[in-house]
Structure formats: C-alpha cells, structure tokens
Specification:
about 280 residues; alpha/beta; Rossmann fold; 2 domains; 6-stranded parallel β-sheet; 3-stranded antiparallel β-sheet; about 40% helix; elongated; binds 2'-O-acetyl adenosine-5-diphosphoribose
C-alpha cells in the first residue's frame, strides 16, 4: 500500500501505534458485528427487540420467567444462537496480528470469546463470558462449551414450536444453571446493577493507566464504568484512537467497520515500508 492512499487520521493512527510499546484495545459489540453478532444499540441491536429495562437485569429476567417464559426463551435464544456459530472476523484477526508486533492487552465488554478464538493471549472480559457459569457466591466457575451452547439453542428451537411452561424452559437451559452441580449457578455474565468481573476489571484499569496507546473499537461508550477507560487512558498521557462507523466526539476517529479499518491500519503501522510502497 502506498502511504498516499491513507488519509491523515489513518496515517496519524499508524504512527501512534508504531511508536507505542504497550497498547490496549478496548472493544465493544461493534467488533463482533461482522461475525454476525448483533450490537446492542444499533438499529438492528438486541435492545430494540428486548428492552434493557426488562432484559438487562436479574429482576426483569426473573419477572419475565414467571410472567412470560416464551418471551424469555426468545431472548435467551437471541443471545446465544449467534454466539454458538460465530467465528472471528478480520477485525479480531488484525488484533491478533498487532500482538505479534507489540505488547497488547485486549479489554473487552463482549461475552463471545472471539478474541481468544482469534488467538490473542491476554484478554480481560470485564462483562464476563458466556462460556462460563459461576456459583452464586462467585467462588466456583465451570466452562460451558460451544457444543453445550449449540445444544441449548437446538432445545430452545424445539420447545418454541408450541406453547410451553417455565419448567420446560428451565430444562432446556439447564447447563447454564449448573445442572448436576452442587448449589446454585448462573451464567458468568455481568448484568446491569452488578459489579464488573474481577480481577478482569482491576487489571483492565491498571493496563489502561500504563499503556502508551488505547484503541477503542466498536463501542458506544455509554455503559459505565467500562466507558470511563478512554478518559482514564487520556488522563494518564496515552494516545487514544477510536474505530467505529459512527463518530462520537473528540479525539482521533477512524470511521468505518472494524474489519475494514483495522487490517490496513496494522499493516501500515508495522508491515508497510513507511517511506512509500511496500
Ligand atoms: P453498543 O451496541 O452500545 O455499541 C456498538 C458500537 O459499535 C456502536 O458505536 C456502533 O456504531 C459500532 N459498530 C457497529 N458495527 C460496527 C463494526 N462493524 N465495526 C466497528 N464498530 C461497529 O455496544 P457496546 O458499546 O459494546 O453490557 O455496549 C456496551 C454494553 O452495553 C455491553 O457490554 C452490554 C450492553 O448493555 C451489559 O449488558 C452489562
């Protein structure tokens, strides 16, 4: 690629990455959109069909379980089905490539595990992971495999063919509730009103306060406390680059989809001849 093809913000971002030693990538739902997982707040996002007032916290979920299990089943399926088949896209793979050049910590709000599947070595999941269940005390964890999630999806498909009661829904999703294990279990995901996952969150704050450059990718930056990370990075003297199709404020913005913007950016930063044609 000729550097003349690059516009000024892209060239600036490439230079910032090249001259940084410790980089943090702070990702949101947007980086997984091209893997077929809907975001939350875009026009086709989860919260359009399943309003957060009802579905983003335990109180609402439990109430829905008793009043409308059919609707809760539709929500669970909408969350887990895309994740059970999703593969990392070019955006995830570009972050894997970045890690071959610089120390990179990925801080993600996503629960889909796609950064790990792409091969990134240090991923801090501050909103938890759908691939884990936890005891209610938070002291014990177990893996929920992709095969189990796919199996739950199939069972939900099956029961949704005709009217059903809550007991059938609980049976269909029982691996997510720790069936066969002692005590009470739940998916290890953070809902509204809960503290962020630890030690991921404390480690994320430390990483951000000590990085030279923070890349935010595909997040609306509306959900706190995670959304405070870019400001924290800036306050600690780090450069901040935002990648998102929707520009949202001050700073250096590269507008576009992660899968389109990240690969040429990483290429320009580390692989291209910085004086011209590679
Ligand atoms: P949002 O849905 O709020 O924002 C998604 C962002 O991704 C928007 O800024 C989009 O413009 C952008 N986007 C869409 N497609 C993209 C693409 N192909 N490449 C890059 N960016 C793209 O999702 P989050 O910011 O992740 O928390 O939401 C934060 C939290 O709100 C979630 O972790 C979840 C949710 O409620 C909890 O449930 C605790």
């Amino acid at each position: 690629m000729n550097m003349d093809d690059f516009n000024q913000p892209q060239a600036q971002a490439a230079q910032w990455l090249r001259t940084s030693q410790r980089i943090v990538a702070f990702t949101g739902a947007g980086i997984s959109a091209e893997s077929g997982i809907p975001t939350f707040r875009d026009s086709d996002g989860f919260w359009r069909e399943f309003p957060p007032e009802q579905f983003a916290h335990w109180r609402g979920l439990i109430r829905t379980a008793f009043t409308n299990p059919v609707r809760l089943a539709a929500f669970v399926r909408a969350v887990i089905e895309p994740l059970s088949v999703a593969r990392p896209n070019d955006g995830h793979l570009a972050l894997r490539k970045l890690e071959q050049h610089r120390k990179l910590i990925v801080v993600t709000q996503n629960i889909d595990g796609l950064h790990q599947t792409a091969g990134n070595g240090c991923v801090l999941e501050v909103h938890g992971s759908l691939s884990e269940i936890t005891s209610l005390s938070g002291k014990r964890r177990r893996i929920l495999t992709t095969a189990q999630i796919a199996h739950i999806t199939r069972r939900l498909h099956r029961i949704q063919r005709r009217p059903f009661a809550l007991s059938r829904l609980l049976l269909a999703i029982r691996p997510m509730l720790g069936a066969g294990l002692r005590g009470m279990w739940r998916p290890n995901v953070v809902l509204f009103g809960e503290g962020l996952a630890e030690p991921a969150w404390s480690n994320a704050v430390t990483a951000v306060e000590n990085c030279d450059c923070l890349l935010t990718i595909g997040t609306s930056g509306l959900v706190y406390p995670a959304a405070m990370l870019p400001a924290k990075a800036e306050a600690s003297g780090a450069k901040v680059i935002h990648i998102d199709p929707t520009e949202g404020g001050t700073g250096l913005w590269l507008r576009g989809n992660a899968g389109a913007v990240l690969p040429p950016l990483i290429h320009a930063a580390f692989e291209a001849d910085i004086n011209g044609v590679n």
